[in-house]
Inverse folding.
C-alpha cells in the first residue's frame, strides 16, 4: 500500500493529522456555539457530528481511490487549515 515509500508515509501522516485537527475544530468550535442556545443543542450536535463524519469519509474515500486523487486528498486538509488560519488571523486584526 505504498508503505515502502517515505514520501507516501510523510504526506499521509501530515494529511491525516490535519484532517483530525479540522474535524476536531468543526465539532469543538461548533459545540461551543451550539450549547449556548438551548433550542439548538440536540440538532446542532447531530449536525456537527454529521458534518465532521461526512468530511472525514470523503477524505478516506479519496485516499482509497488512489492515483493522483490520493495526493490531492493529502493536500486538501492542509490547504483547508492554511485558509482557515488566514481567515482567522484577518478577522482578529
Amino acid at each position: 500500500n505504498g508503505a515502502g515509500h517515505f514520501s507516501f508515509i510523510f504526506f499521509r501522516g501530515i494529511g491525516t493529522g490535519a484532517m483530525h485537527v479540522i474535524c476536531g475544530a468543526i465539532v469543538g468550535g461548533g459545540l461551543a456555539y451550539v450549547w449556548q442556545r438551548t433550542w439548538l443543542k440536540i440538532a446542532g450536535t447531530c449536525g456537527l457530528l454529521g458534518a465532521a463524519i461526512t468530511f472525514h469519509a470523503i477524505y478516506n474515500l479519496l485516499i482509497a481511490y488512489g492515483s493522483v486523487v490520493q495526493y490531492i486528498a493529502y493536500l486538501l486538509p492542509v490547504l483547508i487549515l492554511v485558509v482557515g488560519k488566514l481567515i482567522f488571523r484577518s478577522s482578529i486584526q
In short: The chain is about 85% helix and 0% strand. Residues 4 and 10 are 11 Å apart (CA to CA).
